[in-house]
Structures are given as C-alpha cells and as structure tokens.
Write a structure and sequence with these properties.
It contains 15 helices and ten strands. It has about 375 residues and is an alpha/beta fold.
Length: about 375
C-alpha cells in the first residue's frame, strides 16, 4: 500500500525550535488546533515540545537522551511521525532521535532557516557534536517528507539569511556555473533588507500569486522572499540530485563531494566555540579553498575574484583571526581540521576543490605552505 494513502490514524510528536517559538508564539497552539481539526486521521501523542536550537542542542547529549527517553515512553510505532520544526541543528538532533527509536520513526522536517531549507532539510544526515568534534555521533536516515514554508524566513536576522547564501555558493561553485552567475548577480539584492529594490525575479502574475499565498509582509521582504525561494529550490535540487545519483549517498566511499570548504569551516566553528555560525565559517572555508585553488592553478585569478566578491556582496565576512592561530609547536591550528576530516573517511584525505566554476575534483594531499599563502591572501583582501 502507498505509504501516503494508508487508512489509519497516525500518531505524532512535534518538536519546535525555541527561536522559532519566540518568533511565532502562536505556532504551538496552531499545531494543536490543526491536529484537533483532523482528529479522524491524526493524533498528537503529546503537546508540541519546545526545545533549544542552534549548537545548544547539538552539544547537549544528556538533553538529547532525555528527549529520546520521553519520546520512547509515548509508545510511538514505525507508522508514527516525528515532526521537527526549526533550524539545521534541531533537524539534526531530532532526526537522530527519530532514527534510533524502533530503528526509525517517520521524520518530517520543517526547516525554518535559509540554510536548513536549502541544505540540511533535504539531506540524509542526523547527528550531535561530542567532545568538541562536529557531528561525531549520528546516523544516515532520509526524512519521510520535507516541508518548506518560506514565510518562516521573514523573521530571520540578516546573518541567518547570509548563512543560507553561503551554502548556495558552495554547491554552485562546484556544481553549477549558471547558478553561480545567478548568485553573483543577485548577491547585493539577497543581502538587502531595509531598502526598496527592483529584484530581477518572476513575472507580475507570479508576484501576485506569491503575495496572495502568504501572510502579509513588507514589500522589500516579499521581493527578497521571492528571490530566496529561487535560491532554495535550486540549491536543494542540487543536493537532492547528488543524493539520488552519486551512488554514495551515505558516504561509504572516500569522498565528501558536497563538503567543499568544510574541512576548515568545521575547525573554525570549534576554535571559536561556535561564535562563528556554520554559514559564516563555510564562507571563510570556501574563500580559503578558492584561494588555495588559485595558487595551484585550478581556478583563475578572475574566478577567485568573482567568488570573493559574490560572497562579500552577499554580506559574508571572509576573514577571521583564528585562521592564523598557532599551536605550541608553531604550526597552524586550522590545519588540524584536515586530520579531523580524515577520520570520517578511514584516514584517507579526500578534499573537494573547484576546477573552474561549476566543476570539481578530489585532492588527496594538501600543501601546508600553500595553505599559509592562501591565508595571507585572504587577509590582504580584508
């Protein structure tokens, strides 16, 4: 029988990111009302649970265990649903809980940030940080469904918009030159928040449909949402294409091809105790690896300038002093990120780099001296 047309009353539990709850205080009540209105088919196993968002939950294994135990006591079965509403960290943590109970409950993700909607929401990874290591414990488990509501983006701070843009640049640089051109052309417009601008998207008919389908927002927000919707759809589509066609969706091989810029990004998050958001760290990682690629001749100076300008015009900072932090022995601490990266792949280093815009290849050795030159190059760009 088609899973989407099962004739049964499904039980569910809903977890809501605390930051989403603050921005949408009526959400939990509305969820409860929705389940009551559809009581013939749906049942809330417990009131919606408000949980911490961001790295607070990903770094809190005891909290995750408490949530797992409380969820297991609800006697949910494999036909039940776990619904996660929030940013990528909440999706990761709740996804891990859902994947462990009865070896997997049905997970519905409702990503509420630009980063989660175009990347984490459609991925197959769930996880928590442990002992200072990013996503050290986790599972691979595809979600049952992903629901993107772009209206959630209207309450995000500008920094959260930029985080999503960073991941879009990441996949565009290594997979889609036309998408990179779109992002570069619209970088300033994606960043804009308080000015009326003429966005180059859609048709008048589409604009009317878009405005009618969502709660009222300011005109500049409406335009920016329309543009962000295009970004999310294309970025998520590229991630889904990789998962569907790569032949290695659960990373059993030696490469992590969509983690361009991430070996240093994960280390920067750790070194700054997550004061750098994931998106901001990824932007720096992209810039660092692009500078490295320039020095190796894999991309041109003109292409590096286009990458650097696009990221900065989108509101992303591409320098942090942690890049130059030294260990006691004098070596750069950031290079330890390569060792951490190897742990995921059985000790074999395999890092994705661009070869021109829109194409990528794998590198199995990184020259520390060239990394140092790339860092100096980033610092000189400001």
């Amino acid at each position: 029988m088609d899973r989407l047309h099962e004739k049964r009353r499904h039980r569910a539990i809903v977890f809501v990111d605390s930051s989403v709850h603050r921005s949408h205080p009526a959400l939990a009540h509305n969820i409860t009302c929705y389940f009551r209105a559809h009581a013939q088919h749906l049942q809330l196993a417990a009131p919606p649970q408000i949980i911490p968002g961001g790295e607070r939950i990903k770094n809190n294994l005891p909290l995750a265990m408490r949530l797992l135990r409380s969820t297991s006591r609800l006697q949910l079965c494999r036909h039940s649903f776990v619904i996660a509403i929030g940013g990528g960290a909440v999706l990761d943590a709740v996804g891990l809980i859902a994947s462990l109970i009865h070896r997997g409950l049905r997970l519905i993700r409702v990503p509420t940030t630009a980063l989660a909607q175009n990347d984490a929401g459609v991925g197959v990874k769930n996880g928590l940080n442990l002992d200072g290591k990013k996503n050290l414990i986790g599972t691979f488990a595809p979600p049952f469904a992903v629901l993107n509501d772009f209206h959630f983006l209207t309450t995000l701070p500008d920094s959260a918009w930029s985080d999503g843009i960073a991941e879009a640049f990441k996949v565009a640089i290594i997979r889609d030159a036309a998408f990179f051109g779109f992002l570069s052309k619209n970088a300033r417009k994606l960043r804009a928040c308080t000015e009326e601008r003429q966005f180059e998207v859609g048709t008048d008919r589409r604009a009317v449909r878009y405005a009618a389908a969502r709660p009222a927002v300011a005109p500049y927000q409406e335009r920016r949402l329309m543009l962000m919707e295009q970004l999310v759809r294309r970025c998520a589509g590229l991630h889904l294409k990789h998962i569907r066609t790569s032949g290695d969706p659960f990373e059993m091989g030696h490469a992590r091809p969509l983690d361009f810029g991430h070996w240093s990004a994960h280390k920067l998050e750790q070194m700054t105790r997550h004061r750098l958001s994931h998106g901001q760290a990824v932007a720096i990682g992209i810039a660092l690896d692009s500078a490295y690629a320039t020095l190796k001749g894999w991309i041109t100076r003109k292409e590096f300038t286009a990458i650097h300008n696009g990221l900065t015009q989108a509101g992303l900072t591409l320098w942090h002093p942690a890049l130059e932090k030294r260990k006691r022995g004098g070596g750069l601490e950031i290079l330890d990120g390569l060792r951490d990266f190897q742990e995921h792949l059985g000790g074999n280093l395999c890092v994705t780099f661009p070869k021109g815009i829109g194409k990528a290849f794998e590198v199995h050795e990184i020259n520390a001296n060239i990394v140092k030159q790339a860092i100096r190059q980033l610092r000189s760009h400001g």
